[in-house]
């Protein structure tokens, strides 16, 4: 006779349901799309297990649910994400050491994202509001307000090679020093059930989410910079989505902004997730990009290298086989509001015509471009956690 408690049954059913959602996604066109979906599913399973089993409302910790092996919500390749679950009315102490990243921000969310709506931002601020000591250490206290469910921390890097991570912890004032409660069958059953609901819910959410924002816009356009809805206090963003044939390119021209510590562009997949930003150049910050003499950065989104004689160029964003996908530009730690003049303009052209349209953009050799990719790999290896 089996001694199984049957606790995993909800998760097994959820994985089967999630697989059907992935396998039948309406935007799948190729076998590569389907295989990418199964890889995406693995990340969703991983996230669901982590958020269900690693969190503890009595002994909170920051977990890292979004990274290169678990992509979601058009995750920012330049960010390390942490979040901790909160209980209303409870006091927390957050301590850390400020690294040298371009931005360190905090956001308290009410509720969660769903297929029907976005979560509510209850509070958002960045490290400029912290009292940071000479050694980089900081501490603040927060009593979770009504509706508060999650504290999200983002550490964002503008220069991947020179900026370093800090450290951060969270503790409940009223439970620190106590042992964790022993496991019970009921507790484990609840955790497996939470993982099951989280898995299916996250896939449904991120299928729906881009239609709230990106896919409301006409294809091959980008919005003027605006304060990110439900986002950080000092973040502006520009959003859109592309549809390009293999012989087409999108030229995105945007002024380099010196009134923020962080500025970047990225493209993603129809899974509403980042694409491979380690071994391909699918995102660029203002520190990584090249600005022309007129102060404008001219990015080229295309499948094929857009330089002379089919060579890569510094500001090339690789679509990596994705004929369609979202685009997002971000500005963080701004010292002023942006206007339309600070935002991007877009032109769709033939890849073969790009060298003539951007005569000042030098081509890179294969070795030079490989060096750029190697630098990305090394920076991410030193920065990311999984």
Concise overview:
This protein has 2 domains: 9-209, no CATH class; 214-383, Jelly Rolls. Helix 1 runs antiparallel to helix 2, helix 1 (9-23) runs parallel beside helix 3 and helix 2 (31-53) packs antiparallel against helix 3 (185-208). The chain has helices at 9-23, 31-53, 185-208, 354-357, 366-383; strands at residues 79-85, 91-97, 103-110, 120-126, 137-143, 148-156, 167-172, 221-222, 226-227, 236-243, 248-255, 262-267, 283-285, 296-302, 316-318, 324-332, 345-350.
Structure description:
- With 386 residues, this protein is an alpha+beta fold.
- The protein has two domains: 9-209, no CATH class; 214-383, Jelly Rolls (Sandwich), CATH 2.60.120.1600.
- The protein has five helices and 17 strands.
- Strands 8, 9, 10, 12, 13 and 16 form a six-stranded antiparallel beta sheet that branches. The chain has a four-stranded antiparallel beta sheet with strand order 1-6-3-4, with no helix packed on it.
- Strand 9 and strand 10 (236-243) form a beta hairpin.
- Helix 1 (9-23) runs antiparallel to helix 2 (31-53) and helix 2 (31-53) runs antiparallel to helix 3 (185-208).
- The radius of gyration is 22 Å and the shape is globular.
Compile the SSE list and pairings:
Blueprint: H1 9-23, H2 31-53, E1 79-85, E2 91-97, E3 103-110, E4 120-126, E5 137-143, E6 148-156, E7 167-172, H3 185-208, E8 221-222, E9 226-227, E10 236-243, E11 248-255, E12 262-267, E13 283-285, E14 296-302, E15 316-318, E16 324-332, E17 345-350, H4 354-357, H5 366-383
Parallel strand pairs: 14-15
Antiparallel strand pairs: 1-6, 2-5, 2-7, 3-4, 3-6, 8-10, 9-10, 10-16, 11-14, 11-17, 12-13, 12-16
Helix pairs in contact: 1-2, 1-3, 2-3
């Amino acid at each position: 006779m089996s001694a199984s408690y049957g606790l995993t049954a909800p998760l097994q059913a959820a994985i089967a349901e999630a697989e059907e959602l992935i396998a039948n996604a309406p935007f799948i066109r190729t076998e590569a799309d389907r295989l990418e979906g199964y890889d995406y599913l693995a990340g969703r399973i991983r996230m669901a297990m982590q958020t269900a089993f690693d969190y503890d409302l009595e002994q909170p910790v920051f977990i890292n649910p979004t990274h290169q092996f678990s992509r979601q919500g058009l995750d920012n390749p330049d960010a390390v994400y942490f979040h901790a679950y909160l209980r209303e009315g409870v006091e927390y102490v957050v301590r850390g050491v400020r690294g040298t990243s371009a931005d360190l921000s905090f956001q308290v969310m009410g509720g969660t994202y769903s297929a029907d709506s976005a979560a509510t931002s209850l509070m958002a601020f960045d490290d400029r509001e912290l009292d940071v000591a000479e050694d980089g250490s900081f501490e603040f206290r927060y009593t979770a307000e009504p509706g508060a469910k999650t504290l999200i921390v983002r550490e964002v890097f503008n220069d991947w090679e020179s900026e370093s991570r800090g450290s951060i912890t969270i503790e409940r004032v009223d439970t620190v020093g106590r042992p964790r409660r022993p496991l019970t069958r009921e507790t484990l059953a609840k955790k497996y059930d939470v993982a099951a609901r989280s898995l299916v819910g996250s896939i449904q959410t991120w299928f729906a989410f881009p239609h709230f924002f990106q896919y409301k816009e006409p294809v091959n356009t980008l919005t003027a910079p605006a304060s990110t809805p439900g986002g950080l206090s000092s973040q502006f963003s520009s959003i859109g989505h592309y549809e390009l044939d293999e012989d087409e390119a999108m030229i995105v021209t945007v002024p380099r902004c010196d009134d923020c510590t962080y500025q970047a562009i990225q493209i993603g997949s129809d899974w509403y997730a980042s694409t491979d930003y380690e071994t391909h150049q699918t995102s660029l910050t203002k520190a990584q990009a090249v600005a022309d003499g007129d102060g404008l950065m001219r990015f080229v989104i295309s499948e094929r290298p857009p330089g002379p004689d089919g060579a890569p160029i510094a500001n090339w964003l690789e679509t990596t086989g994705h004929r369609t996908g979202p685009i997002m530009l971000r500005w963080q730690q701004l010292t002023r509001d942006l206007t339309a003049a600070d935002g991007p303009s877009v032109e769709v052209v033939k890849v073969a015509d790009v060298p003539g349209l951007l005569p000042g953009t030098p081509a890179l050799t294969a070795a030079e471009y490989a060096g750029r990719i190697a630098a990305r790999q090394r920076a991410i290896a030193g920065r990311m956690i999984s």
